[in-house]
Design brief:
Distance between the termini: 62 Å
Shape: globular
CATH topology of the largest domain: Rossmann fold
CATH superfamily of the largest domain: NAD(P)-binding Rossmann-like Domain
Structural class: alpha/beta
Order of helices and strands: EHEHEHEHHHEHEHEEEEHEH
Family: Belongs to the tetrahydrofolate dehydrogenase/cyclohydrolase family.
Pathway: One-carbon metabolism; tetrahydrofolate interconversion
Bound molecules: 5,10-Methenyltetrahydrofolate, magnesium ion
Radius of gyration: 20 Å
Function: Catalyzes the oxidation of 5,10-methylenetetrahydrofolate to 5,10-methenyltetrahydrofolate and then the hydrolysis of 5,10-methenyltetrahydrofolate to 10-formyltetrahydrofolate.
Low-confidence stretches: none
Strand content: 15-25%
Number of strands: 11
CATH class of the largest domain: Alpha Beta
Catalytic activity: (6R)-5,10-methenyltetrahydrofolate + H2O = (6R)-10-formyltetrahydrofolate + H(+); (6R)-5,10-methylene-5,6,7,8-tetrahydrofolate + NADP(+) = (6R)-5,10-methenyltetrahydrofolate + NADPH
EC number: 1.5.1.5, 3.5.4.9
Strand order of the largest sheet: 1-11-8-7-5-6
Mean pLDDT: 97
Helix content: 40-55%
Number of domains: 2
Length: 299
């Protein structure tokens, strides 16, 4: 029986969250004089990364935060990047540090992420925050999985007891996503490149979060009827008429319509939530640093 599939409006939800974050930033400024400040670091010339970093900085300013972007040469040394991070860690006016990934090959991502002050690690990628998430602690949670959880909870209410499938096991999305779903009471499976029978696994999932980065990987016919689908994939593919490119998700959207209970579109689903959650993380970091007397009021 075909169902009427709800299309989850991530852009609208993200606008609501952004307004709440803007109000929180204004409250913090009124109470303490602290204006949350985001610093982004981009190394090299990856065109997609340039766009995303600029979008994050613009959104931060649009909601009344300060933001500074460092754009560094592709041949930057790891030592130079670590020195910049050390300076930002020590800067009492900086509350959030984001090092855009991927990094060029001469720079060790693990060493760089571990060098960021965990209290300013608004991506939630520092080993301390990863560990806190894995042990049910109160650290900074990565933005994309947080955004997905907000959409899922708005859609389903309690997730307790549901079968959840996460496709993809990256440190940025898949692994933290699985941790959050586990915390919410789901029975969690993680599929990845070596998974043998993906269609059978997909058929068991009450909720599916796909972050594989593989256009059209998930066929609509594989879905459990009535499943809720969160598509994190952002895949640039040639347009059918050969005229430029467009962005599609991991899930065949058209096939999922009529079968899933609800699905996020690409674009307009998870992407905007990622940015809104990032700014929320900056606000939370600023609030915590202010409460601990570890930051300065804006000059
Ligand atoms: N340290 C770090 N932190 C990140 O959070 C991080 C990163 N590195 N590297 C790259 C990925 C990717 N990412 C996106 C953010 C917003 C959209 C976004 O706004 N998407 C819109 C528009 C899509 C488009 O037009 O390109 C949408 O889905 O509707 C997408 C992707 C953050 N990332
Ligand atoms: Mg999207």
């Amino acid at each position: 029986m075909p169902v009427d599939t709800r299309i989850i409006d991530g852009r609208l939800r993200a606008e609501t969250l952004s307004r709440e974050v803007a109000a929180g930033a204004e409250r913090l400024r009124g109470a303490t004089g602290v204006v949350p400040k985001l610093v982004t670091i981009l190394v090299g010339e990856d065109p997609a990364s340039k766009i995303y970093v600029r979008r994050k900085a613009e959104h931060a300013r649009a909601i009344g935060m300060r933001s500074v972007s460092h754009h560094l040469d592709a041949d930057l040394s790891e030592a130079a990047l670590l020195a910049l991070i050390a300076a930002l860690n020590a800067d009492r006016e900086v509350h959030g540090i984001l090092v855009q990934l991927p990094l060029p090959p001469q720079i060790d991502r693990v060493r760089v992420l571990a060098a960021i002050d965990p209290a300013k690690d608004i991506d939630g990628f520092h080993p301390m925050n990863v560990g806190l998430l894995a042990s049910d602690g109160d650290g900074i949670v990565p933005c994309t999985p947080r955004g997905c959880m907000m959409l899922l909870e708005a859609e389903l209410g309690s997730l307790q007891g549901l079968n959840a499938l996460v496709v993809g096991c990256s440190n940025i999305v898949g692994r933290p996503m699985a941790q959050l779903l586990l915390r919410a009471g789901c029975t969690v499976s993680i599929a990845h490149i070596h998974t043998r029978d993906l269609p059978t696994l997909v058929a068991t999932a009450d909720l599916l979060v796909s972050a594989a980065g593989a256009p059209g990987l998930i066929r609509g016919g594989w879905l459990k009827p009535g499943a809720t689908v969160i598509d994190v994939g952002i895949n640039r593919v040639p347009k059918p008429d050969g005229d430029g490119t467009r962005i599609v998700g991991d899930v065949r959207f058209d096939e999922a319509l009529g079968r899933a209970a609800a699905i996020t579109p690409v674009p307009g689903g998870v992407g905007p939530m990622t940015i809104a959650c990032l700014l929320d993380n900056v606000l939370r970091s600023a609030e915590r640093l202010a409460a601990e007397g570890r930051c300065a009021a804006a000059a």
